[in-house]
Amino acid sequence: MRTSLSNLMRPGGISSRAFLRDERGGMTLFVLVFFILLMVAGGMAVDYQRHDLARADLQNALDRGILAATNSNQLYDPNGQLTIDEQAVEVIQDYMASRVDRSHSVDLVASVTQTTGGRAVVATASRPLNTIFLRMVGINQLDVNVQSGAIQSAPRLEIALVLDVSGSMGWDSTSAPGSKLSQLQIAAKNFIDTVLSADNQAQTLISIVPFSQQVNMPRAMADLYNIDRQHDYSSCIDFHSIDFNTVAMPMNPVTAYVQGQHFREDVGSGNFGCPNANNAITPYSDNAQTLKDAIDALDPETWTATYMGMKWGQALLDTSSRPLVDAMIANGDLSAEFAGWPNAWNDTGVRKITVVMSDGQNTRLHEINDDDYDDQPPAWWNNFNPPSGSKIRVIDNAATGEGDVLLKQICDKAKLGLNATVYTIGFELAGQAAAQAALEDCSSSLTTHYLVEGVDITTAFQNIANEIVNLKLTN
Q1: Cβ contacts of residue 450 below 8 Å, gap of 6+?
Q2: Based on the structure, what is the number of domains in the chain?
Q3: Range of the domain at 55
Q4: pTM of the model
């Protein structure tokens, strides 16, 4: 039997005043209201936490895309119809695709500003986030907004690539197709493409210094030095131990430089004491194709003298070589913008970079006994093998360790510059502890020393190139 409110209020029932004073059931109503409010508040926390997670995810994805778009080598325009800003958006979207919830599209705006030596990219991204609990109070979506920026900047760059072209570089790689030299060529050319981009070409010079047991100069370069020339077959210089205590190499020393001898190194081979023309220095170039052609031409021969390569690498970074740059400008081989290069070692606006790659320890540097050499004209030594007993080992590192000592001397000098960095790459040096130790000691730090096998040499060169280009977030 139901009791209506009117029945309660009739005579004999509960009076209206008593009804109003009756507190039975009041706590239930309070608990119900409090529970609803608590659920809404807790739900809001969940939705806002979801919003923070979505924002962090979107920020990380945008940062990755920004770094890619800021690297000038990443921008592309397959149809030739996109502006540089639109290209940046394309690159960023590609990098964001794998990181962002695709249930909602992302609104992306990016702009690119060309800077000296690079570019700056800024971008904003936004997307909606559907709510779960906030819907109860009429909020169906939360906006996720992030922004990011990055700058690719490089100071003036002077780079010496000191590359091993000794005979063992012609051996098959232990863990990759082809020879060790072929792997080096791939890696070095990728390095050139990254470092010598269109953005920083006007303030970057790269020299390639191939070395075996000696280092050869192209004739036009050699003619600028005061050399006591004895023949015209090649242009190597014989150094004394004291020469490795300095990075300088004056064009006109008080005493003329001694020209390296010309003689066949191996019986029945075309290898000579001074490397062949394919392995001559390529000095001061801002032309990527010229540098890559020189890398493709490299030809493995004879022994290993890393100290000779380092000596020449540092000479080309030193101000004593400015007459060579001046001559190249005068001949039209370099832009006049490079007048005054190489820059001073303590110039805060320049980075002097040496990248040394070798596949073995220092071995030998041969010469011919002077008495024997003087008995025949250079043409004889060009056509006939050295007679037994005529060849001497000027430096035999295995016996004396002198090569490692000279390498340490010049490497220590190379690292004294305010913004000078020496990177070393030991290529397939398994079991060669002495070679590993020598290269590690030559490097500026443990982080600039690499030990690699096979195709990993490309990764090493790429890591170095990326660090040189100096890509960084600014948000």
Answers
A1: 423, 424, 425, 426, 460, 463, 464
A2: 2
A3: 26-152
A4: 0.74
